[in-house]
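We treat protein structure as text, and this decision shapes the records that our systems exchange. The tokens are whole numbers drawn from a learned vocabulary of local backbone shapes. Below, we set out a record of this kind in full and without editing:
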Amino acid sequence: MRNKLVIALAVVGIVAALLAAYFYAAPHKPLPPTFTPASNPYARGIYANGIIESYQGSGANINIYPEVSGTVTDVLVAEGQLVRKGAPLLAIEDSVQRALVAQQKSQAGAALALLNELKAQPRKETLEVSAAQVGLARANLKQLQDQRDKVVRSYQINPQSVSKGALDNAENALRVAKANLDVALRQYDLTDAGAWIYDIVNQQRQHRALVNAYLSSSALLEKYVIRAPADGTVIAVNAARGDYISPLGTYNTYTQGQNPVLVMAHSEASYGVRCFVDEVLLPRLPPASRLTAQMFVRGTNLRFPLEFVRMQPYLTPKIELSDQRTERVDVRVLPLIFRLQRPTNIAVYPGQLVDVYIGAR
């Protein structure tokens, strides 16, 4: 009985294995694709990877970097926001620079006050003091002149009445009084002449230098607020409040590289499409006067005509990874720039990868 059971189970297992083999070996109808892959619309068209960017006469998107370093205190815009040229986008901590501007403004004011003081000379009170010193010197001279005359007169009447020493002392005192009067007159003329022109010129230049330093610091202070360089749309904000940013940009946690602090795109009715043609396909590239192209949006069956704008006649390494500093590639590509009218039946965005076929008219 037991042997019969074992044989029956073996037969059932063999039948099940045969049925499973037949089922899995039978061909199955493939699932239909979610979209039709892009096909070459040209007889001898060439394929190129493309990326959508804002349309500009030159360059790509507007990458904004700060001109100064510091901590972000406020982000004044949001991604997708329309801004006008000159609108504030981001603020950087500026307490040190603001204090420096105030200091240099005070120094320039002090230099101007000293310059005005030099130009206002002679001061009325100082000139009056010099005039009083001249009067005192003249009074002393008159007094000593009278004393000398009395001594000389007495000597003339009776040489025995005055000693030779007394007569010499009177003469010397008179000479000293005349010299003091001459010094007082010269000091009065010097005071009346005012400040020396060279002192005024020197002070003018010092004042101008301090004003220029103040204007330079004020201009640098303006750099602590990043403003929109043109009308457009903010498409990326790569800094948050509290982040440290520098003229190199802001640190990206994921790629461990530096990114622009903000990225802007022009708010126009058209996009730019930058295509990268492999160098091995360049011999098949039509002349610029006959270039035409079509763009295919990945994941859809949509295609859009492109208008050729220009090419960059310089081959660059093909970039595939995010950290370009450590990437090593041997293939080089030629960038071609096309213009795409903004689609109405589908949303496309700057940075989106697309398929492009390039042909000839």
